[in-house]
């Protein structure tokens, strides 16, 4: 019987030896790319020295070491094997590998790439190399993987890592030349939910070349490749038609052309259509689709050859293949104007013809985050102008919105509302329900699941998600250095740090928590594993647990911190709070990721003195829970005329999903779009004020969101009762624990009056 090594080092052993937290070790070994490179390298060095990792392969010692000499298996990670361009590339890879004596394991990214990056199971595969055709992986993780085994990237360049790509610049220029020669002066880019490996570069090149040649370019988002969606895409196109369309997915282009012809639109006499790739099916339609031909199979062959060279310890150069523009029957001389117009459908908020200039009104607490998006949209759509209405705090905005609706005057078309307020306005039927088949098909996958869920209520979708929020800890490095303390990983460490600070200066506070509203207090409950309330699946029964032991225990812990002088509960808008921070009397601030911009604006002279970190855990740091504070959506009023309502929806979806909009947003804002969360340019980016990789910390905090976090459908009332019960007791000598029952009973009474069934646990 084989003996068992009972002395194999554990993650705790590595953490102790490396002088880091257990969670840091777990992230470094299981999800490379989530820590800074120096810390990650140090942890891996310790793990190798202790025997946890195999020194030759960097794999866990319990797994058989797979080296280039011991296996002929190559893994190919593909974005979408149903995409024709991807399929052709894989064919080229597979054939060349087989001819050279290698075997290919083909895996779709959804099976192997998680929010953390490459799944742990991938690292156990006995492979000699990998070909990766995906942009979602972060640069640091790719470099960490390249240090372990040979890899080749497809359609993406990274210094020091072998890559293969398609050069599309000349083909794009020839396409634009042809369209211009035919008398076409405008072009719509039909963007699929996932534009594929080359979509980003194609869109950028087409936009640049079109601008150079004076051709106006619009973008239509969420264009699905099925026949039913193509009809909806055509209706959206007809709202603001152009002389030509291009899609990076031939399936979208072919079905769009079929839908256009079914509506009586002559191709190419009225409209030119161009696709991308070499799908065998494109020649079956009439007219034949013009396209940018992509030598994907040849590229796949090149990438496979490059990988084989790497396995043999050679140093191949990056490879590139030239795309070519292939004219066909779907382009030609434009002989007449478009004959069809959009079908008016009030059920579809993106299907409305605008023939006259239109002014939209938008109400928000601040336009700082949105000004660049609005300005860019107004530039692209000169027929649309946006009148800004400053509405005050979120509570004031909600109150003002109700009053405007009651009086029937000056109701804003768009109102920026925090996620927690949205359910009540939806329940009171004051918001436009965006949950149509066309919207679901076009946009559901373009938002992070948490944020899409936040705007969904009882089967409806009542807003366009804007930003993603999660609790963070902001610390003053100069204060930490002055008192010789370290960043607390747990709340127990936070309180011990507070005692150490007060021992040297009684005025010091370890951490400040905002009392402007109940959101930070509720977030702390979820972070501690408490669950103050829940709802059943159909949204008719509410379970309240504000007097449960976990909630009482967490509130008592907070009370003790306040009484001891470690926790400062204060409205962050108060002048006194700002002065205390400026005077260096507050070591840390607990807030959300969006607060970093407040820091920059309020204390501009403290550049380089602040750092963002994960918030403390209420238990083991490896079991950290974070929670939401804030986060907002653009909501559309259902009380305004259809023309303005639909124009507002078009603006909202463009602002929150189109790369042209997301790319102009301010630094330090965390978008709710999947495009943003998959953008490899954000990780590793040093913020000049905080002097750190800010987005790396944001993304890591988002990975730990409490899974059961939710709001009640009447948060304004919850907030009002909190302000009269618990909040006044969040002071030294106060009794917030004693007010939990009062808070709960008033919530229960209000819920019953609204028709909910209430269970108190």
Provide a short characterization of the protein structure.
By secondary structure, the protein is α/β, with parallel strands linked by helices.
Summarize the topology:
Blueprint: H1 11-18, H2 22-30, H3 37-50, E1 73-78, H4 84-99, E2 103-108, H5 109-112, E3 113-114, E4 117-118, E5 129-133, H6 139-146, E6 151-154, E7 163-167, H7 169-181, E8 186-190, H8 199-212, E9 216-220, H9 227-239, E10 244-246, H10 250-262, E11 272-276, E12 290-293, H11 296-311, E13 319-322, E14 324-326, E15 358-364, H12 371-380, E16 384-390, H13 394-407, E17 414-418, H14 422-427, H15 437-443, H16 449-454, E18 456-457, E19 460-461, E20 464-465, E21 471-476, H17 477-483, H18 491-504, E22 509-514, H19 519-527, E23 533-535, E24 541-544, H20 549-564, E25 567-570, H21 575-582, E26 586-592, H22 595-602, E27 610-613, E28 632-636, H23 642-657, H24 659-662, H25 674-677, E29 686-687, E30 692-693, H26 694-702, H27 715-724, H28 736-753, E31 757-760
Parallel strand pairs: 1-2, 1-5, 5-6, 6-7, 7-13, 8-9, 8-10, 10-11, 11-12, 15-16, 15-17, 22-25, 22-26, 24-31
Antiparallel strand pairs: 3-4, 12-14, 17-28, 18-19, 20-28, 21-26, 21-27, 23-24, 29-30
Helix pairs in contact: 1-2, 1-3, 2-3, 4-11, 7-8, 9-10, 27-28
